[in-house]
């Protein structure tokens, strides 16, 4: 969100759309790769919708072509898109991977989460929130 705000202040909307489209297609491809890996490693998992593997493999072929073409034609845009994705790595390590956080860090993360949920009107009801304590 912060990177998007900075790009909107510095650049134009067309550039932001290029960054986001590259990021979207990269994430779509990784998702399809995950689907194929799960089909091979855990074939007995319940799947409400099951498709022939030819469909995701065909999609991946087109995806690889578009991604390689994007990297060839606009390497700077793709590089900035990758940098935008990598800005989430420290957030992941702070919020998810680091298990034994001090209580002050947990309270900060919970308050930022609550503030973001209220800002975006996506507050999920909880049984025992930090406000009640």
From TrEMBL:
Protein name, UniProt field: AAA1 protein
UniProt keyword list: Membrane, Transmembrane, Transmembrane helix
One GO MF term: neutral L-amino acid transmembrane transporter activity
A biological process from GO: D-alanine transmembrane transport
Gene: Slc7a10
Residue spans crossing the bilayer: 16-39, 51-73, 79-98
Residue ranges of coiled coil: none
């Amino acid at each position: 969100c912060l990177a998007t705000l900075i790009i909107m202040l510095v650049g134009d909307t067309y550039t932001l759309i290029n960054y986001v489209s590259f990021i979207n297609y990269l994430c779509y491809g990784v998702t399809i790769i995950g689907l194929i890996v799960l089909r091979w490693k855990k074939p007995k998992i319940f799947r409400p919708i099951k498709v022939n593997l030819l469909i995701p493999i065909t999609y991946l072929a087109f995806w690889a072509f578009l991604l390689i073409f994007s990297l060839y034609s606009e390497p700077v845009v793709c590089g900035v898109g990758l940098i935008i994705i990598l800005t989430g790595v420290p957030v992941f390590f702070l919020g998810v991977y680091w298990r034994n956080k001090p209580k002050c860090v947990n309270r900060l993360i919970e308050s930022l989460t609550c503030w973001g949920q209220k800002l975006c009107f996506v507050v999920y009801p909880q049984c025992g929130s930090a406000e009640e304590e």
